[in-house]
Amino acid sequence: MTSTTAYCGTRGSELSGQTIVVIGGSSGIGLETARLAGTAGASVILAARNQERLKRAAAEVGAERTAALDATDAQALERFFAGLSEPIDHVMVTGLGPYRAPLAELDHARAVRDFDAHVWLPIAVAQHAVGRVRPGGSLVFMGRTGGRQRGPGMSLFGAVTAALPALIANLAVEVAPIRVNLIAPGFVDTPLAAALLGSHLEARREQLRATLPVHRVVSPADVAALAVHTMINPVITGATYDIDGGQQFVSP
Q1: Would you say 133 and 84 are in contact if contact means Cβ atoms under 8 Å apart?
Q2: Which of 22, 91, 182, 246 is 20 to 30 A from residue 66's alpha carbon, by CA?
Q3: What is the pLDDT of residues 205-232, one digit of tens each?
């Protein structure tokens, strides 16, 4: 029998008394992670760029507080962490969509911004986490499985995808006993995906239901359950977890 219910790996109050920061927490995976962490007893701090969406998200999940923040702005990120009055337990950072362009059209300035958003940002967050995240707490970052494909337009995306697991494993050693992990989804049925695909969204869903080994589309709640699991389990660090329903093993 095929189930379309999201997996939920948390129970009761396993994050009770802990504080989680979700950067990129106003929608999609970040919002669902905040919601699930709150259900598990955590106090939640949400940060995101759009103030209005942030306000609505905070009301949905009962966030302790919010911060309007562009995490790729180094000074803004530094101010945010400096403004945390008490130690925190976990930080999750969701990612922007990857920049893809054929080699002949690859724009250097945009490529540098993409590199900063996907590779430099985890480094910066890890630097700021030292002394602010409690020992045994965790940092959770987002990658992609789609960047393991090869083809026109995939050069930068592929390089970033390959770099992240090595980066996360090394950060786990450098900032220990803070734990550091990477989650790598494929297609996730988020508001961003809906905005990008528009009228083609349902066709994409049907294609994935027909081709994925799990016969269902990965939801934000599925990814959130894995993210919260890495926070709760005290011995997970330096790991990369794929969560794409087997998408990388079948034709896209």
Answers
A1: no
A2: 182
A3: 999 999 999 999 999 999 999 999 999 9
Per DSSP, helices labelled H in the chain are 28-39, 51-61, 74-82, 108-115, 121-129, 155-174, 191-197, 201-211, 220-232
Give dist(CA 249, CA 238) in Å, integer: 24
Considering only 79-93, 109-123, 168-182, which range has the smallest mean pLDDT?
109-123
In the CATH hierarchy, which top-level class contains the domain 19-188+220-240?
alpha beta
Task: Give counts: helices (H), strands (E), the chain.
Answer: 9, 7
**How far is it, in rounded angstroms, from Cα 232 to Cα 180?**
13
Residues 6+ apart with CB under 8 A from 150: 158
For the chain, give the number of residues: 252
First-to-last alpha carbon distance for the chain, in angstroms, is 24
In angstroms, the CA 8 to CA 33 distance is 11
The residue with greater pLDDT, 210 or 160, is: 210
pLDDT at residue 7 above 50? no
The percent of the chain in helix, strand and coil, each rounded to the nearest 5, is: 45, 15, 35
The domain ranges of the chain are 19-188+220-240
Instruction: Calculate ∠ Cα 204-97-116, nearest 5°.
Output: 165
